[in-house]
Amino acid sequence: MEVVNAIGRRKAAVARVYVSEGTGVITINKRGLDNYFPSSILQFVVKQPLSKLDVTEKYDIRINLDGGGFKGQAEAARLGISRALIKINPEDKPALRAEGFVTRDPRVVERKKPGRPKARKRFQFSKR
What is the dihedral of CA 92, 98, 103, 105, to 10 degrees? Predict the structure, then answer.
């Protein structure tokens, strides 16, 4: 099997994912998964599609992460891994979709408006 690639995005984070057959090693920006994401919750988020399909030990995954915070990066990686697994085996799509791993979360930060301190917050109103 050759290398299968996919892109996952969330907020400002972009994950370029490369999946190849191997022993289950996940490398993010040339670092190990547990080194890049010390939080076990974020490690769990990245591995969710693999554990759902029981292919954790079947593929080696190389991820190039850029932008955003660690939560957005983890969810971008999850989307990228899901898309790559669907490219490898299209029959897996309904199982991943049922868990919500295939849907791109469209929520992003609202832009700041002129004359306001933040996007929606206003300066304090003074009557006199």
Answer: -140
Domains of the chain: 4-99 (3.30.230.10)
Residue given tokens 């995954």 in the structure block: 61
Cβ neighbours of residue 15 closer than 8 Å, sequence gap 6 or more: 7, 8, 9, 63, 64, 65, 66, 73, 76, 77, 79, 80
Task: Please give the average pLDDT of every successive group of 10 residues along the chain, which has 128 residues.
Answer: 91 95 93 93 93 91 94 95 93 92 94 96 93
Helix (H, G, I), strand (E, B) or coil at 19: strand
Question: What pTM was estimated for this model as a whole?
Answer: 0.90
